User: Fold this.
Amino acid sequence: MSVQSAKEFLEKITSDDAFRHSLVSQLARYRSEIVTQAGYEFNEKEFDEAIASLSAAKIGQIPGWFCDMEETGKPYKGRKCGGGLWH
Assistant:
């Protein structure tokens, strides 16, 4: 492991659209599998509705890993929480 490897990875996700889309898709599938294995079933719309019912303080306690991802430029940024892919 090295800082150089991390820099190369960041360069790749900010410059290679196909790689970035593939990575985000894989992360979404993995997230869904973990949630299902934990015994919960809901779709993205239902999750959005549940989040909308929470206070801002509670929303701030939700790990960034559960934020939706969308491309708003390079690199990807979290749509709901603004923290980005790695937080």
Remarks:
- The two ends are 19 Å apart (CA to CA).
- Strands lie at 69-70, 77-78.
